[in-house]
Amino acid sequence: MIKITGNSKYNVSILEENDIFYVEKKNHPKEDNTRFINQINKHLFFLNNRGYNMIKVPKINTITDNKYIIEYIKSYDIIDYFNTMNIYHINNFIKNVVSFIEELMNQSSLQTVPEEIILNKIDDIKLKLETYSDNFIIKTTFDFLYGNISLFETKIPINYCHGDLTLSNMLINYDHNLYLIDFLDDFINTPLTDIIKLRQDTKYHYILQLYNNSYDKIRIKILLEMMNNIINKQFYKYEKFFKYLDLINFLRILQYSKTKKMDEYLIDTIKNILG
């Protein structure tokens, strides 16, 4: 068994049985399983829904109360893929990601989000960031969030979404097929969440903070910027929500920061988003 580390509170391991590899994701026995089960159901939805032809989802082998086991996908690391593949394959990858979000948008209904849902989430994040309560940037960010909740009087697309559509949760197998993993049950199920999680990597380069191998920094940053520009152009009509949701996203990541270096990156990013 090989343990996989990350920010998730779940235990993720690679298992081998009869020379076949699997990935096991397990919830802690003392944790409430409700959200975990919702994530499994979301995985099953995208696995069984043939409408999303541009993406694939690993098959589920086993489901129990607090864990599930999926097929292991032999795949490229996404930064290595960007670093080595030709522009044809990279363009095709970006096209498939954008098409996936477009399909989610097309199947959405426009709805307003009750103010209480937004307030509860901000209150919850603030409580978990009490140790940063004296930080001017963090205090200013919460003031902005509380002061601009009226933004959500405008209807937004509500529908199934991945919930954590970062580049780290995308696998490219050796036939260049795109697989999505680690679906997340979010406080608002909207494709806007998927755009924001992509921006986390394409605009703010969070994925590079986690990457330890060598890569062509200029090439990767150019490709991430290219992908970000395509996303912004394709979904420009929702641009008014980006700043607000970007801030919530990075505050939520800050909850899991374990190093001074990561703290500095996250707070600097939040400051830049605030403007």
Structural class of the helices, strands and pairings?
A: alpha+beta
Distance between the termini: 46 Å
Q: Helicity, in percent? A: 40-55%
Strand order of the largest sheet: 1-2-3-5-4
What general form does the structure show? globular
Low-confidence stretches: none
Which series of helices and strands comes N to C?
Answer: EEEHEEEHHEHHEEEHHHHH
Tell me the β content. 5-15%
Total count of strands: 10
- Sheet of most strands: 5 strands, antiparallel
Give me the number of helical elements: 10
Radius of gyration from the CA trace? 19 Å
Look at the structure and give the mean pLDDT. 91
Q: How would you characterize this protein structure?
A:
The protein has helices spanning 34-48, 78-84, 87-106, 115-128, 136-147, 191-202, 206-209, 217-234, 242-254, 260-274, and strands spanning 2-4, 11-17, 20-26, 60-63, 67-71, 75-76, 109-111, 156-158, 170-173, 178-180. It contains ten helices and ten strands. Helices cover 47% and strands 15% of the residues. Helix 6 (191-202) runs antiparallel to helix 8 (217-234). The longest helix is centred in the middle third of the chain and has 20 residues, at 87-106. It is globular, with a radius of gyration of 19 Å. With 275 residues, the protein is an alpha+beta fold. The strands form three sheets. Strands 1-2-3-5-4 form a five-stranded antiparallel sheet, covered by helices on one side. It has a three-stranded antiparallel sheet with strand order 6-9-10. A two-stranded antiparallel ribbon has the order 7-8.
